[in-house]
Design brief:
Blueprint lengths: L1 E2 L2 H13 L4 H20 L10 E6 L3 H15 L3 E6 L7 H9 L5 E4 L7 H7 L8 H8 L6 H22 L2 E5 L11 H7 L6 E5 L21 E5 L11 H5 L1 E5 L16 E4 L23 E5 L6 H12 L5 E7 H10 L4 E5 L13 H10 L2 E4 L7 H13 L3 E4 L2 H8 L2 H4 L6 E4 L3 H7 L4 H6 L1 H12 L2 E4 L5 E3 L3 E4 L12 H14 L4 H23 L6 H6 L1 H13 L1
Parallel strand pairs: 2-3, 2-5, 3-4, 5-6, 6-7, 7-8, 9-18, 10-11, 10-13, 11-12, 13-14, 14-15, 15-16
Antiparallel strand pairs: 1-9, 16-17, 17-18
Helix pairs in contact: 2-3, 3-4, 6-7, 10-11, 10-19, 19-20, 20-22
Length: 565
């Protein structure tokens, strides 16, 4: 599935208008789709009444216009509909027209402050959480009101009406801000969103307070049970924390002509990984195939104290279809992994006194292994020493195929970026950092990386001519002109060892003849699918990385079933 940035969506809508489908028609279609979703919910188990109250929280732009259209459709179907204007009167021509088209049966509530009331409100400390009906009644009971009291009465009545509407809603629809929002919500909006209600909450296009560019959120963001996304899924909605506030995401077709996508031709392409993107994976295994058909993976990993990392990488590669998996590691690590994965073959390397690989003593053995490998995985549990730095540089300088650099391989590059920048051969490099490792590569911090995941992965991939697999919820696979976003996987995978399995899987897929980007995408997807299968069997709390390895068979079965459907 293709996804787009908010800026790309604007270009697509502009091109749609040139092709004969106006923005007004797109708004009509979006409002109609939103109304259809709401009607479906009204007849679902989510709503326990035969006469549900539907309340729209509308902004002044086109996002509010979508709500006005939906309100019109619903009221003509006999539903009880209210619209609360939270920002002001409609400001765009098509939202003004949609607002005017609503029949009188739609109850319209002014939910925004009158002018020149800030001082009075601050003096009275008005708050949506504390406003009570008695506050309004006590002012109404007075025979004479001062000018300030008249302002306070008007504001208390407004706030009480909005609060009552929100509390009484069975379905609450957010159409305050659209995909162009950035920054922070105003206090009034945050207060309204925080009013306690048992309503089913729907966001139109994106929850207000969410940044569709990077997936960040404002404090007080609208927390939706479901988001109806118009036209195309937006990039930021694939990333956390915004994805968490979207709830179930439905992408609604609003009639954008296919040719309108030409408006973003030549720009960075974004895709959401699904069975269509993986149509050629895994390849059919012909009856006359042999182990050489499915490639050789060389895994350079492990140390005395990190044997599990090597074991996970080896088992991940074996369970993902590679014909031959070779582990090059220190003696204690080889002894351990040979018991867990006797199907692998082994190269025992000399080690220093601390159990880390040496370089000079192992150069000859590694040279032969590198030349015969279709793909190489380096770094899992390897440690960071002068020798492993030299080893990493040697691999990147001499490999002819695809090299997957993970964990301590990345940490070696952090120590000396020239390992990556000045590599001497045409080896194709896949880096698999988690946010902490990405932060070290960019001399930043994990919070900054998580707030700018697309930029971090894409810029590094572009500048260093590599593929970056930025791990985390909504893992990104960034190459030069395309970025893929993964949606499989779950929080139960947040354990040491999961990344080692992923590195082994990607190495296995690459060895089977897939290009680096496709191998990374397939590896990330199947890895997450195995995690989901493990969570189904054991629960997210109890599942272990070893369970994910054992569930790779389930993952391939599920993928094949999806591809047949």
């Amino acid at each position: 599935m293709q996804i787009v940035t908010a800026k790309q969506m604007v270009k697509i809508e502009n091109e749609s208008e040139k092709l004969g489908v106006s923005k007004k028609q797109l708004m009509q279609n979006a409002g109609t789709k939103l109304a259809e979703v709401i009607m479906d919910i009204c007849h679902s188990d989510n709503i326990q009444t035969d006469d549900p109250k539907i309340v729209f929280l509308a902004g002044s732009g086109n996002n509010g216009g979508d709500c006005f259209v939906a309100a019109e459709r619903l009221v003509y179907k006999g539903y009880n509909v209210s619209v609360v204007n939270l920002i002001g009167e409609p400001t765009t021509d098509i939202s003004k027209e949609a607002f005017a088209a609503m029949p009188d049966r739609v109850k319209v509530i002014t939910g925004y402050r009158s002018e020149n009331v800030e001082a009075a409100i601050e003096a009275a400390e008005l708050d949506y959480m504390t406003i009570q009906d008695k506050d309004v009644s006590s002012l109404r009971a007075k025979t004479e009101l001062t000018p300030v009291e008249r302002i306070l009465l008007r504001e208390k009545e407004r706030m009480s009406t909005v609060r009552t509407a929100v509390i009484g809603a069975d379905i609450l629809v957010d159409g305050v801000f659209g995909t162009g929002f950035h920054g922070e919500l105003e206090d009034d909006i945050k207060a309204i969103f925080s009013i306690g209600t048992g309503a089913y909450k729907i966001a139109a296009d994106v929850p207000s307070g969410g940044n569709c560019a990077n997936g960040s959120v404002s404090p007080g963001i609208f927390k939706a049970d479901e988001t109806v996304c118009f036209g195309c899924l937006k990039t930021g909605m694939t990333q956390f924390p915004l994805k968490k506030y979207c709830g179930k995401i439905t992408v609604a077709d609003i009639g954008i002509p296919f040719m309108a996508m030409s408006a973003i031709e030549g720009e960075k392409k974004y895709i959401r990984l699904d069975r269509k993107q993986l149509a050629g994976f895994p390849r059919k295994r012909e009856r006359d195939a042999h182990k050489g058909t499915f490639g050789t993976v060389l895994i350079i990993a492990g140390s005395n104290n990190m044997r599990g990392a090597a074991a996970f990488a080896v088992q991940g590669a074996l369970r993902s279809g590679a014909g031959i998996v070779r582990l090059a590691s220190v003696e204690k690590c080889v002894d351990t992994v040979s018991l867990l994965a006797p199907e692998a073959t082994f190269i025992t390397l000399e080690s220093d006194d601390n159990g880390f690989m040496l370089f000079d003593d192992n150069k000859e053995a590694l040279t032969e292994a590198i030349q015969s490998a279709d793909a190489i995985v380096i770094g899992c549990g390897m440690g960071v020493t002068p020798d492993t730095l030299a080893l990493t540089r040697f691999v990147l300088d001499n490999a002819k195929g695809i090299v997957i650099v993970d964990a301590d391989g990345i940490n070696c590059i952090v120590k000396d970026i020239d390992i990556l920048m000045n590599r001497h051969t045409g080896a194709q490099i896949i880096l698999t950092p988690h946010p902490g490792e990405m932060a070290r590569l960019l001399k930043s911090d994990p919070a900054t990386i998580n707030g700018n995941r697309f930029i971090a992965a894409e810029k590094f991939a572009e500048n260093l001519d590599v593929i970056v697999v930025l791990k985390g919820a909504g893992t990104l696979v960034a190459a030069g002109k395309v970025t893929a976003v993964n949606h499989t996987g779950n929080a139960g995978m947040s354990r040491g060892g999961s990344g080692d399995i992923l590195a082994g899987i990607i190495g296995s897929v690459a060895a089977q003849g897939y290009d680096p980007f496709d191998a990374a995408c397939a590896g990330v997807y199947i890895h997450g699918l195995a995690g989901d299968a493990a969570a189904d069997k054991f629960g997210q709390e109890a599942m272990l990385p070893s369970d994910m390895i054992n569930c790779l068979s389930d993952a391939f079965r599920i993928l094949k079933e999806k591809q047949r459907s």
